[in-house]
Design goal:
Elements lengths: L1 E2 L5 E2 L2 H6 L2 H11 L2 E7 L8 H30 L16 H27 L2 E6 L8 H18 L5 H27 L25 E4 L16 E6 L2 E2 L4 E2 L8 E5 L24 E5 L11 E3 L4 E3 L6 E3 L5 E4 L11 E5 L5 E5 L16
Antiparallel strand pairs: 1-2, 3-4, 5-6, 5-16, 6-9, 7-8, 9-10, 11-12, 12-13, 13-14, 15-16
Helix pairs in contact: 2-5, 3-4, 3-6, 4-6
Bound molecules: FE2/S2 (inorganic) cluster.
């Protein structure tokens, strides 16, 4: 034995190596000025019914926690989360409560399992400890190692397989849940829906127009070439309304479109492959572009008809309409997508605009930037 640097007498290295882990842990505690005044194994006889019952109770809490974690993942993927038109089923309202409730159950039962474990299965212990701040000696390190070994023994994990497995389950669920939230976008694949707007041809809804989608104002009136003065502009939408599936062209965030009538003498220098997207197809007088700014998605609609410039008020990007809405100033780097349009004759004999097809490029902000 040698003098301990902090509290009791320090056993020699040889003495420590001869001790059981528990004896070494108690000796180490004393050297550190920690006096264990009471220590009792709750189940001195291993494998009794009472011990197994306690173990099952703790495991049950972990299993409930794991099931709630699993439920969270299922709810994240399967519970409807979309808003639908007024008057249709609004079942998205269960989405957030379901996720929050299951997450709470997972964490609460993991905590309950931990508390029950320490209350029901780990040895009772009371200790009084002094504080010290001297660097650790080799003996200190050995004693700390012994304390850790006894601590692991006390948890019962090495011999309690059920507990170990249920804890791993609950821990796995706990680790997976934040992962699901982080990579959720990849779990719920958007498919190609980000590449389409409601201008996508719809033969079922518009068989008489060959599936081409009528272009309408926000009050659902159809848009006619006569409506616009030369140099004029209007915000228009796809005339698609499907109450059952919750589609509404006028409310759809991706579909607002600017229809522009050029002034006499103005011509457009088109992008490659888009020379016939206006109306008339050759030497067009009317052209239509997405209203969603390609920088950060604000509505770009301040049109200066003399110069043909379109300004986005959010960060002052400017698009040159006479060059097919090419960005000429500000942070936007991609042209506004162009909508292929033409006219058809309505039942009243007037001409009305329809979209020949959907936009050929994804609408919206610059994260769609492509080489
Ligand atoms: S959103 Fe249009 S310039 Fe930034």
């Amino acid at each position: 034995m040698t003098d301990g640097s902090h509290g009791g007498t320090m056993p020699s290295e040889e003495e420590i190596r001869r001790m059981t882990p528990e004896e070494a842990m108690i000796a180490g505690a004393e050297v550190d000025g920690v006096r264990i005044v009471h220590r009792r194994d709750r189940f001195p006889i291993r494998g009794t019914k009472a011990e197994k019952r306690a173990e099952r109770g703790v495991a049950m809490a972990f299993i409930v926690s794991a099931l709630a974690g699993l439920g969270f993942i299922v709810a994240f993927i399967a519970v409807p989360f979309r808003w639908h038109l007024p008057g249709t089923a609004q079942n998205f309202k269960y989405y957030t409560p379901a996720l929050g409730g299951l997450l709470a159950i997972m964490l609460i039962f993991l905590g309950i399992g931990m508390v029950l474990w320490s209350k029901w299965l780990m040895p009772e212990e009371e200790a009084i400890q002094d504080r010290h701040d001297v660097p650790s000696s080799e003996e200190d390190k050995l004693l700390t190692e012994a304390a850790l070994i006894v601590g692991l023994e006390d948890t019962g994990l090495p011999r309690r397989g059920l507990l170990m497995r249920s804890l791993l389950l609950a821990g796995g669920a706990m680790a997976t849940v934040p992962l699901v939230a982080l990579v959720g976008g990849m779990i719920k694949k958007p498919g190609d829906k980000l590449f389409h707007t409601l201008f996508k041809p719809n033969p079922k809804m518009f068989p008489e127009s060959g599936g081409r989608v009528p272009i309408v104002y926000s009050d659902w009136r159809r848009v006619s070439p006569d409506d616009l003065e030369p140099g004029g502009l209007a915000t228009v939408f796809p005339g698609v309304r499907d109450e059952v599936n919750g589609y509404n062209g006028v409310n759809d965030a991706s579909s607002p479109t600017l229809l522009i009538r050029l002034k006499p003498g103005q011509t457009v220098k088109p992008r490659k492959g888009q020379g016939t997207f206006g109306w008339p197809a050759h030497n067009p007088e009317y052209i239509a572009f997405s209203k969603i700014c390609t920088h950060a998605g604000c509505p770009a609609s301040l049109y200066e008809q003399q110069t043909g410039r379109l300004l986005c008020p959010c960060h002052q990007s400017q698009f040159q309409v006479l060059e097919d809405a090419k960005p000429v100033f500000g942070p936007a780097t991609r042209s506004l997508p162009k909508l292929p349009i033409t006219v058809e004759t309505g039942k009243d004999g007037r001409q009305y605009f329809v979209a020949l097809s959907d936009y050929k490029e994804p609408i919206g902000p610059g994260f769609w930037e492509r080489p």
